[in-house]
Each structure stands twice: as C-alpha cells, then as structure tokens.
Amino acid sequence: MPIVDLRDIPVAEKIEADICIVGSGPAGSTIARELDSKRLRIVVVESGGIARNADVDSLNEIENIGRARVMDQWLVRNRMLGGSSNTWTGRCAPFDEIDYEARNWVQYSGWPFTAGEVEPFLQRAAPYLGLGLGSGFSDRAFWELFGRPNFSPEIDEELLVPFFWQFSKDDVNRFDYMRFAKGLLNSAGGVRVILNATVTNINTDAEGAVVKSVDLRGSDGALREVSAPRIVLCAGGIENARLLLASRRANSAGLGNQNDLIGRFLMDHPRGRLGIFDVAKSEPLQRWLGVYNLKNSKGSHRFRHGLRLSPSYQRKNGLLNCAVWLNEYVMDDDPWNALARILRGRGTIATDALFVAANLGLVAKGLNQFLIQRNGMPRKLDRLELLCIVEQQPDPESRITLSDRTDKFGVPISRINWKINQQEERTVRAIGRLVQAEFRRLSLNELHLDDWLVRDEGLPLSFPDIAHPTGTTRMSTSPKLGVVDPDCQVHGVRGLFVAGSSIFPTSSHANPTHMIVATAIRLADFLKGQISNGAR
Ligand SMILES: Cc1cc2nc3c(=O)[nH]c(=O)nc-3n(C[C@H](O)[C@H](O)[C@H](O)COP(=O)(O)OP(=O)(O)OC[C@H]3O[C@@H](n4cnc5c(N)ncnc54)[C@H](O)[C@@H]3O)c2cc1C
C-alpha cells in the first residue's frame, strides 16, 4: 500500500482521486479496503501519522460550554493512523430491533432502514473487527450457537433481557484488540494513504451543490489540495460536524447546513455505576453474568453477559434503551492479573510469581472454569459493581458549534454543549431498581444502590462522555430532519458523503464501532454501485 507524508508531495503536484476518504479510523480504513481495486484511484488523507504526536493532538482541542466532558481529548479520540481504534477497548454489540424504530416516546427516533437490512453488513463487519460472529450472538441464540445449556435464572424477560457483548480480537496477538491501522497497512492494494494531512476546508462549486476537493495542511504548513468527485468524511463524530461547519465559502452557515442541523443532536453514552454487591456471596452471580470464552470455526472469542431493558418495558414506560453488567475490581494480588503480567513481560516477575503461588486454589478453580466450563476465571475481588450504559434522547439543543478560537491551521475549534436529559435519568433509575427487585426475587446477590439513585437525584458527573460522539450529521430521508440521506450523502451536496457514528439518528445502548463498520461497508457498496453505473 503506497503511503506518503504530505510534506513529501511537491506543492505543485495535482493530487487527483476517484474517491477521497478523510480519516483512517474504523470507518475510513474499512471503506478504503472495501473499495480497493485497480480501477479506482482511492486516496485516504489522515491528519495524524503512524505514531502519536503532541502537535497533531492539539488539533482536537475543544471548548466546552455544556455538561462536564473529558477534556484531555487523547483519552476519547486518537488523531493518528487507525483513529481511535489505537486505544479502543474492543467491546462490540449489534443494535436491538427497537433501536431502528420510530418510537413515539422518543422524539426524532427512527432509522431509514431496518435491523434486517443491516444484518448482512454486520456479518461482513466481523472480520474487520476481529469478531467470531457478526450477528445473532447477543440473545438466547448464544447458548445454542455454542452448544451450552442456558443456566440463566428465570429472569422476567418482560423487564430485563439477558444480553451478550463480544470482544474484538487481533488476528495475530490474541491478547490485543483489532487495531485498524494494521489492517489498512497490511492490505495489499492500490489505496494511497497520505499521512500528516489535515483537511481544513471542503471545496464545492459556487452554490455549494457539488463537491470538488479538500484543502490539506501538513507539518510544513503549505496548502495542497486533493480533487475528487466523491469525498467521504470519516473524521469521527465531532470532526465530521466541525469540518462541515467550518467549510463556509459557499454558505456562511457551513456546508450542507441549509437547515441548521449540522452539529445538533450530539449524543454519547453516559456510563457509570448504579450500586455494589456483597463480594463474599457473589460467585454464582459472577458465573452467570460473567465472561464466557467460546470457540467456533474462527477460533476462541470472549463474550460478556449482561442485561438490557426489555423493549416492552421501554414501550410501556416511555424509556430509552439501556444495559447493565458487572464490573469486577480485582485486588492487587489477583493471580490472573499477575499471570498476565508475567506472560506479557510486564511487572516484577518475582512478586507476580508469589501472587500466583499464594492463590493456587483460585488458579486451579479458574483453569477448570476456563478450560472445561468455558466461563471466565473467578477473580480475587475487592469490589463488585453494577455498571450501566444508556442511550440518549436525540436533542437538537445538545450540539457542536464553532468556537471563536482557532487551531494552528486557522480552523475554529469545536464549541461543545453536550446535554443529558430527564429521559436518560429516568431510564437509568428504572433499570437500577428493576435489577435490585429481580435479583431479590430470585435470591441472587443484594444490589446496594448508590445514594444518588436512592435519592432520585439527577445523573451524577461520574456518568461522563465515553468516546462515543454520535448524531451530529444524522441520517434522515428528509433534509429537514437530517444532514445525510439514507445513502450517507449530504442532502444538497452531490458527491459529499459521511460515515461514522455522526450519521446515527439514535444511539442504542450498544457501543458504536460494530455499527460504524457495518454502515461503512454499506456505503462502500453504494459507491461501487454508483461508479459502475457510470453515475457522476
Ligand atoms: C479509549 C477508548 C475506548 C473505546 N472503546 C470502545 C469500545 O469498547 N467499543 C466501541 O464500539 N467503541 C469504542 N471506542 C470508540 C471507537 O474507537 C470509535 O467508535 C471509532 O474509532 C470511531 O471510528 P471512526 O473511524 O468513525 O472515527 P475515528 O476512529 O475517530 O477516526 C477518525 C480519523 O479521522 C482523522 N481526522 C480527524 N480530523 C481530520 C481532518 N480534518 N483531516 C484528516 N483526518 C482527520 C483522525 O486523525 C482519525 O484517524 C473507544 C474509544 C476510545 C478512545
């Protein structure tokens, strides 16, 4: 794969492509690999390089005027080849059917396609993400797929539905998650990757109706340009909106912003703790809602079992989608952590060997559970918590606009006014109380709810944004309700497409990257079809 630094391209060279992809994270790199062919000139422009660089990191700076957010942007997005997959933690889940519906109690909800239509793309996304299965694993089918008896207690599924997440796994290093930079670099092919190339403007015809090119700046500060009849923004949930808002040559409100929608409907996934369990009595609960290591023809894969709010309960009570799982805080001398450090060549071998030796009983039990029963290993626990992740109500006032401050290339930084509303708070309180009541009824472990939840206070600041910026260029068939159409093309701007979580109309409780990759493949198919039909 030809890879070059922007500053090594002569300023006089005309860079031309059939398709220019902005950003090389999971969305951009997947589209590039899907489109890679001898017939097409594909150029990926990536703001960062192979390694992290403080100067480039500074381009992600934000101004926050809303709810408290993580301000060190490196913790929530990585500006380098492969995007935020450099530090992601690999948890994947498909959306539930209800997530696609227009729900009359969730204003602005409804996707322009159904779960069934996305299903083949979720399957095709699996190898990119290092998943054993692309769909069909997250509910009761899990037990059958892996030939295991379902040993769930009789939970009332009108209230809470058992649910599985699956973890990404690198194809070589089984201890790591899939990192998309490696996938892009390893794919033989003709895609041209230009590093340290930051897009500072999207250029169109005078009316802003047809895309023409993007302006690029690199470490030498010189202006270069990539011309292409099709440009795909894959710069992440915040930067996609920022780039459109900052491209103001044809329309002072921003490109494609004739209906003042760009940057609105900013969502994330508030995530935090609902309560704790008694550690001493927690083994059955940990085994049931624990980690499962399961094998299929594509090798062994790690799943985590949790519970989600049932669709019927959401419907009856006007709530959002939401899920909970156990969070194990292990002690410093947990033998499995010690063993992992030894295997990875980290930590102090003598101390870790002592920790293993002192806990041989737990190790033997763990090996039995891991190898024979294929459950996760029992851990030496300090604390066992119930964590929750909640969908957000799409809110036009929760939004990104442009700050008066600019980055080093003169582009205004994002001014973020992120909001959390009552519907999220009601949903989180409801799931906490349901889990407590159901676990009591089933004589499982007692959940001690946190004070804020008992006192009916709002979501505390311990529910921050978690690197899932969503909705800022939302998809809708109507230009009055969305920035992109169902083919991901910006309404009113021919040739300009957007991929990533910014196109999601609603966010589900599911982590976004599986859906990002699936919708990116869907867009790649559309572009292939458009080109082979000879469309301009
Ligand atoms: C610590 C952490 C943990 C996470 N864990 C999970 C998880 O467990 N499960 C999950 O589903 N998701 C997780 N995520 C989120 C996941 O990483 C993102 O959903 C995913 O990376 C988004 O893919 P993307 O391609 O849309 O955007 P990104 O990965 O953000 O990639 C955007 C790319 O565009 C480039 N770019 C930006 N602006 C410009 C510009 N102007 N010009 C050129 N290039 C530009 C950036 O440098 C970057 O490479 C996590 C993220 C973090 C940070």
Written description of the protein model:
With 536 residues, this protein is of the alpha/beta class. It has a domain of 325 residues: FAD/NAD(P)-binding domain (3-Layer(bba) Sandwich), CATH 3.50.50.60. The chain is built from 14 helices and 21 strands. The strands form four sheets. Strands 6, 7, 13, 14, 15, 16, 17 and 20 form an eight-stranded antiparallel sheet that branches. Strand 9 and strand 10 form a beta hairpin. Flavin-adenine dinucleotide binds next to helix 1, strand 6, strand 9, helix 6 and helix 14.
Question: What's the layout of helices and strands?
Answer:
Blueprint: E1 3-5, E2 15-16, E3 19-22, H1 26-35, E4 42-45, H2 54-57, E5 62-64, E6 91-92, H3 115-129, H4 141-145, E7 160-167, H5 180-186, E8 192-195, E9 198-204, E10 211-217, E11 223-227, E12 230-233, H6 239-246, E13 271-277, H7 283-288, E14 291-296, E15 299-309, H8 311-317, E16 322-330, H9 335-343, H10 349-358, H11 360-372, E17 381-390, E18 399-406, E19 412-417, H12 422-441, E20 447-449, H13 451-454, E21 496-498, H14 513-532
Parallel strand pairs: 1-8, 2-11, 3-4, 3-12, 4-8, 5-19, 12-21
Antiparallel strand pairs: 6-7, 7-15, 9-10, 10-11, 13-17, 13-20, 14-15, 15-16, 16-17, 18-19
Helix pairs in contact: 1-5, 1-14, 3-14, 9-10
Residues 22-28, 45-48, 76-77, 79-80, 83-85, 87-92, 198-199, 234-236, 239, 243, 467-468, 500-501, 511-513, 516 line the site of flavin-adenine dinucleotide (FAD).
